[in-house]
Specification:
Number of helices: 13
Strand order of the largest sheet: 4-3-2-1-5
CATH class of the largest domain: Mainly Alpha
Structural class: alpha+beta
Number of strands: 5
Largest sheet: 5 strands, antiparallel
Length: about 260
Amino acid sequence: MIDRTLSNIVVCIGVFVTIGWGGVLSPLRAEQRSPNDSAVIERGKRQFSESCGFCHGTDATGGRGPDLVRSPLVAHDVKGDKIGDVILHGRPDKGMPPQSLTEQQISDVAAFLHSRMLETIESSGVPSAYPIEKLLTGNAEAGKAYFNGTGGCKTCHSPTGDLAGVAKKYSSIELESRMMYPDGPPLKCTVTLPSGERMNGTVRHIDEFTLVMKEDSGWFRTFSRDQVKVELRDSLAAHRQLLEMITPTQFHDLFAYIASLK
């Protein structure tokens, strides 16, 4: 029950989380961590330390600037496409100047950041007592305004209801991770056959051509998607959409607010 409440945090509590961090990051495992080339990551580490470490910390866990190990932007970056844009254009409104890094340097930095993120996800290297000060880079009042306004969180959640005392139930790192990557019940579906017969079940595999479902009765069925009508029901769909839209500032503000619900 708690897991579902917090996994629902993402949108409504903004976005959110846990990893189940693997859900959102699984594409990165194949693409970002590729080369098993430690030399690329090492080059990226040196470049990051030189160009970004002053604000974001040499380990990318934050300092004057936000923690990048748990950044939504880094999580959704593919081979430097989002990271590179920020590096090259900066964020002048937040005091971050643009930097003239080459395509290779950006690729190396991206590889380093993704290696740090995956290292955190796949190991027990981040203690549950991760300093809350490292994570609280946002404004709680702005986060509350987002929760009650633009984010639409109050539609499904309440700081005195399902989220009451939520910050005491989880360590700071667990709370943020649950907000970062929603992990909920399996995707449900209804399949309508040409005959009009309908069957309900859980999606076990789906792609452009094929659907494999486990019927509520327990039987597995495989369908060609062009032969049947498929209705999907994802309880976290709105949360996943919010994760794509929420800005880093909004997320950090929202986390600061949720972390205050003790």
